[in-house]
Predict the 3D structure of the following.
Amino acid sequence: MTALGKLFRTTAFKLTLVYLVVFAVFAIFLLGYFAFNTRRLITDQITQTVDAEITGLSEQYNQGGIRRLVTVVENRARRPGSSLYLVTTFSGEGLAGNVGSLPTGLLNDDGWKETIYRRQDESDTVERRALVRVFQLPSGFRLLVGRDLEEREHLYEIVVAAGKWSLLLVIVLGLAGGFFVARRVLVRVDAMTETTRVIMNGDLTGRLPVGGSGDELDRLATHLNEMLARIETLMAGLKEVSDNIAHDLKTPLTRLRNRSEEALRLAKSEGDYRAALEATIEESAGLIRTFDALLMIARAESGHARDNQTDFDAVEIASGVAELYEPVADDKGIALEAGAGQPLPMRGNRELISQALANFLDNAIKYSRQDASSAKPVIKVDATRDGEQIFFTVTDNGPGIPEAMRGKVTERFVRLEASRSVPGSGLGLSLVAAVARLHGGELRLEDNNPGLRAVLVLPRGDVQATQ
Ligand SMILES: Nc1ncnc2c1ncn2[C@@H]1O[C@H](COP(=O)(O)OP(=O)(O)OP(=O)(O)O)[C@@H](O)[C@H]1O
Ligand SMILES: [Mg+2]
């Protein structure tokens, strides 16, 4: 019962019903029009025939008087399938014809009348219907000529019956069609509902069934499936991040607590306490940096950063970041070279791109001086343009990243074994990768023979001032 109710409530079924009503109204109108016109046509034919006969008969009367009229009428009345005739005196006494009885008073005045009558030669008592015309002859005799309406009524009945049956057929077929279509739709929608229930129960691998016919339900299912796939990857990413955070932040926090406990237990002098507190502050600062980096990555991955785009000069950004790192490089005896050139206007999130470049430079400075035996470290920063793309390149001549690890180091919290001695949280390149994704560009890590060549490739974007 509820299944049937569900079926009747579907849009497909309601639409069928509306079409059915429209079609039925149209069919009724058409049949009515047909019936009405057939009836009129037959009536016209009868009146014409009767008029012609009356003209003919009154001519006979004019030529040969009542005697001749009576003879002609008797003759005609006897023919099979003849019209109805009656000739009477002024007082209504029948002289000739084939009409047995008529309603009284019918012959009193002239004109067209629809009446019931009985034929003379028929013994039965059936009353028939006829269309008759009464005509008064000059000397007071009356002439009635008419035709039976049985044919007309019969035709009319046929049309009405045909109408009734075809209407019934339309309704039955329409309802069956609606039922069928609605059921088909309902089966598919039910399958979709079932899948969504599975998904809501936490199984994100569930996908809506696609019939393959390419209809609107298929398109809807395909799009929803794409959306589900995207949500699934996002959820997986989110889970990975939270796992990473839980894991990687636990270590520094545990260290923090252990150190504090140790200081409480072992510190004797004010100097010991001070040293312990300083170590705590340093550790906390590292934690805060890690959180900042994570927040920045999250921002780069959210849609909000995409709205926050401005026009700026790529060369200016590159040299600006290089300038910022110059004192640090100087301190460590590293030569920092920034390429200068024509301005390269581009469009993007300026703050995030600067931070990405800063991360490149930070790495180059941090890791290029690991083995003292190598040549004097040189770092080059550059921004160039090729077609519609801008290349931000930072190269160093340090140890570089082994090819097998180049894909890995862009993941969150991933650091090479060799770099453990240098502080860092393994989030720098993750941010660069996120910034590249945000702008529809890419992060390339290449061999600089020796050293690392880190390239951030970004589309120039829809920049206003083209040069
Ligand atoms: N220029 C480089 N030369 C050698 N190794 C590098 C270089 N840049 C990055 N790496 C390696 O890639 C790892 C990941 O770098 P990333 O910038 O993501 O993290 P991090 O520098 O360790 O920490 P953070 O940047 O968050 O302070 C580094 O730990 C390091 O091992
Ligand atoms: Mg780094």
Summary: Residues 61 and 69 are 5 Å apart (CA to CA). The domain at 11-154 is CATH 3.30.450.20 (Beta-Lactamase).
